[in-house]
Amino acid sequence: TTQPTMLVPLLLSPLLPRLVAGIWTTSQIDFEGNTRSYKKYVPSSSGVNSGLMVFLHGQGGSFDVSSDYQVDKYAEIFGFVGIVPNGTPMGGSGYEWNIDIEDGPNEVSFIHAVIEEVATTHNILAGTPKIALGFSNGAGLSSLLGCYDSSDLYVAHVGVQIKSNADFPSTCGGFGVGGKRLRRRDSTVNVNSTWNAVGDQDFFIDSLEPTPVEGLLNQFLSLRDASGCLQEDPSETFGAGFTCYSYASCPELGQLCVYDNTPHVIRESMTPNAWAYLTASGVQYNTCYDQGWAPVDGCSETTECCAGEGQCQNSGPPAKRGCGSPSPTPSPPGPSPPQDCLPIGEKCSDDSICCDGSVCDKGQGGKKCRNL
Question: Are strands 81-85 and 52-56 parallel, antiparallel or unpaired?
Fold first, then answer.
């Protein structure tokens, strides 16, 4: 059953007659003999083929985490269908995700079932992005959905491209028998397949030395070495309140973002940052990478912020530059013409200076500045 939980102006997509868009709905699905629930936001701005993004709360949380992630706001900006499921009920209040007990609830299969239901209902194409972003306990489930082992990197937020072959207990991707990490390069890994984040004050990294952040970066370096990548320094991307790191020769490690002055909480910008990176738009939200992009039609260079290459949005911090294709590098200017030179075609004398490399030459019509 589906019930509206928020009233906003309704817009009908021409591709989806009888389906309302731009509202939150709550749905139930029968799974493993239990009734499970999830919230869904279908944007009014996009239609149905921009993909979907699943948001996974932490232990004791619920699908109300949608407000922390600002799911509806960024669904409208990026055009994805936002899905926020509840985990398995805990003994007291709240929900959790089973990521350890083999004979417990199969949360991976549950998320697959929800995705299949939403994709079928809204005609979401197979090739469009399907992203999961999880916090804390939800980050563990996100890792399973992306066939990714984050146990050697102490992060509290994990975003992945959801793999159709993800299972539980995991036997796919970066996991081997018994869930052990495979210490080898995987030539089939997708570029930008993993987004990792943690706050610099998160208790997840308290035990790391010499400082929590330095210890985390050392873990990232160790993963680079264990993966057989080049001995290179990570590239750094600076945003409003965070710094992101990545290794150019090691795409399977994805991106690691450290948020300033942030404990064990969700920051709103994690939603657009994860989506933009995992869908390979190449633009960090609310930084717009000062790369000299030329503004595209409809994008203001000073009042709008890049949401992705070739896109612009109407909210957020001002952009340093507009969005679009990189501006061509201007050619260096040539030497300035001498002052008081005569242009080509002008009458001249032996002591005249002709412009643009021309010379004073006698021909038909007398002496004139000519190109020889």
Answer: parallel
